[in-house]
């Protein structure tokens, strides 16, 4: 009675032409979906709708003006902002920035609303007017005011006055990435115009809007640059390993079709391309090679042993169908468990890759053999580098059998030694450094942070407990104390609170006596000051971004420089602790904002992915036990499948010491990948034990002889592919590629050395008698 695999082999050969036509139809139908692919570039794409930090930030934006901005950093080559030409340029840029698309507010040192008293009137006016006509005395006065104004220094003017900034708030009508593109294009055009007009200045552009644009740039760069490099690398590896131009072409066709199907289905399903899911083509191209390599190498070997092409195809399908099916399922399971991620882009990546992997399975076991059946495919002459019976693999198997005890303890020591590096890992990230310095945004942000102000901010929505409560002296004094506490903390470069305005007005109303640079002591007086100030503010420069409508709450913004996400989380926790101890209950809140959203994302994602990793481990274990029909072999297979990820993390701990968003999905993702070689090795080992009644030692030799070469080829391909991914200019992708390459390398090492000695140690049962349906003992 023929097995399903044997019947499938005959079916593929008999119906090769219909299968080819059907495959082409499927590729055309699914691939057509690529025209519907969209790019998502909004920074909020990393957060699910139920993310508590996103919900807190949305609540903050509903209360106050939205804070999405473009920030121009102006650095005079003279290193002095307070000259007529530089202030004139700042004034010019400020005026032009109002005309940018969706601009709602522009702040700079020139239009800073400076207060003074003339008679009984409070005058609020621009700090600089007609910059080119200022006298030396007026320039000095502007300098003194700007460098001593808490609302400006460390925010819009550097402490030494050598760099200044112009902040443009925008209100986008929706979350469409094209809106961000429109704004950023206008910002870069304005930058270029100002650089031409004022060559004595260096102008940099950063801000939240520019993050969105850079996300899209990173996505497009990875797709247009890495995918062609990956294709070239795959062709090179296949040419060297298969030594068959037609075999190389067939394999390449399968992986291209698999990628088109995965991306096309993503288009049909409305899955957007983003910096994470943009990796899908590279990963699918890489992973899809393994199935084809196993089928082709077995087929070539049988042809060299005397079988004709059709017999070799049948034999290859018979012995490879089950392990290829299992590896495809386990790899897909690993990527599908990324749906547990708290970051939607990783869910998208997992789903797209899983679809591509399943497509690769069908193309490998149906389309590839069908094409091989009708094309004049010939096996290359035997080569030690690719032959399953090559001398090097025979000697390696003998060495492992002879030295099993020494190898076992050596591998145990290696696993423990590498894994201990996990203790050095800290959960940390720096989302500006997600981008390589070759991106304009990264260079501009680094320069701004080093010379002017930080891009990282923690916003506090401080409620007074009642309407008009912001005028209460006790409330204002508490905010002032909270702000002063933050100013003493490490990494804090600026604290923006409306109480600094109140102190300035109080001093103005007392003949500019420095003694009165303090908060007013009466609620009515504070209310009058605030009303006078707001009545004199020009359109667009009101306090809606600081105080809510009914004046029951105010917003305090803390700007940071040089803080990592771990340090930001710690500072936010300390801030909440201060409020709990020193403020009334109504003021207690958590810090929010884009910065805090990213600061918590890595931590939250790792927690969510731990459960998914356990789920993937359980599901993969069940699959292994069912397929191998042995609880013992299924459990033994877990060790070389789990250990590589921990060893990879350990080496990362020694080398880098920091784990962020990129590697939070690593265990779930790689678990399905590293199972592949284990499945193929155990499948051949078990075939030797059951079909050919071999001893464990001979079964190990049989497995090395039959599967070591394709294991080596597929691992080189996988490592090469993920090393290409490690070259990405987007740090999340680069770290993911590096860690995956390390993990897969350890997986091959354990499958070659640790798995065999485990089998020799624990699988000592008598070999099974060959079954009637088994093929007579012959080398695969």
Automatic annotation (TrEMBL):
Matching Pfam families: MMPL
Topology of the protein relative to the lipid bilayer: Multi-pass membrane protein
GO CC terms, sorted: plasma membrane
Keyword set includes Isomerase: no
UniProt keyword annotation of Cell membrane present: yes
Residue ranges of domain SSD in the record: 252-374
InterPro entries (UniProt xref): MMPL_dom, Mycobact_MmpL, SSD
Subcellular location field: Cell membrane
Keywords noted in UniProt: Cell membrane, Membrane, Transmembrane, Transmembrane helix
Predominant location: membrane
Bilayer-spanning residue ranges: 223-242, 249-271, 283-300, 321-340, 352-375, 406-427, 609-628, 635-655, 661-682, 702-726, 738-760
PANTHER family: BLR2997 PROTEIN, MEMBRANE PROTEIN MJ1562-RELATED
Protein's name according to its UniProt entry: SSD domain-containing protein
Species per Swiss-Prot/TrEMBL record: Candidatus Electrothrix aarhusensis
């Amino acid at each position: 009675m023929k097995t399903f695999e044997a019947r499938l082999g005959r079916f593929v050969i008999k119906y090769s032409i219909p299968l080819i036509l059907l495959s082409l139809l499927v590729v055309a139908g699914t691939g057509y979906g690529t025209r519907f692919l969209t790019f998502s570039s909004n920074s909020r794409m990393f957060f699910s709708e139920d993310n508590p930090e996103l919900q807190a930030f949305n609540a903050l934006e509903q209360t106050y003006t939205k804070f999405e901005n473009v920030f121009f950093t102006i650095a005079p080559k003279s290193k002095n902002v307070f000259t007529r030409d530089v202030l004139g340029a700042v004034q010019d840029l400020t005026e032009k920035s109002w005309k940018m698309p969706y601009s709602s507010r522009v702040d700079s040192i020139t239009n800073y609303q400076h207060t003074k008293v003339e008679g009984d009137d409070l005058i609020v006016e621009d700090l600089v007017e007609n910059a080119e006509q200022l006298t030396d005395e007026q320039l000095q006065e502007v300098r003194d005011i700007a460098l001593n104004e808490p609302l400006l220094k460390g925010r819009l003017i550097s402490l030494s006055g050598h760099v200044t900034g112009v902040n443009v708030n925008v209100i986008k009508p929706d979350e469409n990435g094209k809106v961000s593109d429109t704004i950023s294009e206008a910002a870069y055009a304005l930058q270029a115009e100002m650089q031409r007009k004022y060559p004595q200045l260096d102008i940099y552009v950063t801000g939240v809007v520019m993050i969105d644009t850079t996300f899209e740039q990173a996505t497009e760069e990875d797709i247009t640059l890495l995918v062609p490099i990956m294709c070239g690398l795959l062709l090179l590896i296949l040419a060297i390993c298969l030594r068959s131009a037609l075999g190389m072409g067939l394999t390449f066709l399968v992986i291209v079709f698999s990628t088109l199907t995965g991306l096309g289905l993503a288009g049909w399903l409305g899955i957007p391309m983003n910096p994470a899911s943009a990796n899908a083509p590279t990963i699918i191209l890489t992973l899809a090679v393994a199935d084809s390599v196993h089928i082709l190498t077995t087929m070539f070997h049988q042809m060299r042993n005397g079988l004709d092409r059709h017999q070799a195809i049948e034999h290859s399908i018979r012995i490879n169908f089950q392990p290829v099916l299992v590896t495809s399922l386990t790899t897909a399971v690993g990527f599908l468990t990324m749906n547990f991620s708290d970051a939607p882009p990783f869910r998208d990546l997992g789903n797209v890759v899983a679809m591509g992997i399943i497509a690769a399975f069908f193309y490998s076991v149906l389309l590839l053999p069908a094409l091989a059946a009708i094309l004049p495919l010939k096996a290359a002459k035997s080569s030690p580098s690719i032959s399953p019976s090559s001398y090097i693999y025979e000697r390696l198997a003998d060495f492992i059998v002879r030295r099993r005890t020494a190898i076992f303890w050596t591998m145990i020591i290696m696993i423990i030694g590498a894994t201990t590096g996990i203790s050095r890992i800290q959960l940390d990230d720096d989302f500006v450094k997600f981008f390589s310095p070759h991106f304009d945004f990264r260079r501009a942000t680094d320069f701004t942070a080093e010379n002017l102000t930080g891009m990282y901010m923690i916003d506090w929505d401080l409620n007074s407990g009642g309407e008009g409560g912001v005028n209460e002296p006790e409330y204002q004094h508490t905010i002032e104390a909270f702000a002063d506490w933050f100013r003493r903390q490490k990494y804090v470069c600026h604290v923006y609170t409306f109480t600094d305005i109140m102190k300035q007005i109080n001093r103005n109303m007392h003949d500019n006596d420095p003694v009165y640079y303090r908060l007013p002591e009466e609620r009515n007086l504070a209310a009058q000051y605030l009303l006078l100030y707001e009545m004199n503010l020009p359109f667009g420069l009101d306090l809606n971004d600081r105080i809510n409508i009914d004046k029951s709450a105010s917003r305090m913004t803390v700007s940071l420089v040089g803080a990592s996400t771990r340090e930001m989380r710690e500072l936010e926790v300390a801030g909440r602790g201060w409020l709990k101890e020193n403020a009334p209950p109504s003021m207690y809140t958590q810090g929010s904002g884009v910065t805090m959203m990213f600061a918590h994302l890595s931590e939250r994602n790792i927690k969510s992915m731990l459960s998914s990793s356990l789920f993937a481990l359980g599901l993969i274990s069940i699959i292994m036990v069912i397929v191998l029909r042995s609880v013992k072999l299924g459990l033994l297979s877990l060790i070389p499948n789990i250990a590589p990820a921990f060893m990879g993390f350990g080496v990362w701990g020694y080398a880098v010491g920091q784990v962020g968003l990129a590697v939070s999905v690593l265990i779930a993702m790689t678990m399905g990948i590293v199972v592949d070689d284990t499945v193929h090795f155990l499948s051949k080992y078990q075939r030797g034990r059951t079909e050919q009644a071999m001893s464990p030692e001979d079964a190990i030799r049989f497995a090395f002889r039959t599967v070591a070469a394709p294991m080596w080829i597929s691992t080189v391909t996988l490592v090469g592919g993920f090393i290409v991914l490690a070259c990405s200019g987007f740090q999340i992708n680069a770290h993911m590629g590096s860690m995956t390459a390390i993990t897969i390398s350890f997986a091959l090492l354990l499958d070659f050395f640790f798995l065999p000695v485990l089998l020799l140690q624990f699988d000592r049962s008598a070999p099974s008698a060959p079954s009637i349906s088994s093929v007579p003992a012959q080398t695969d």
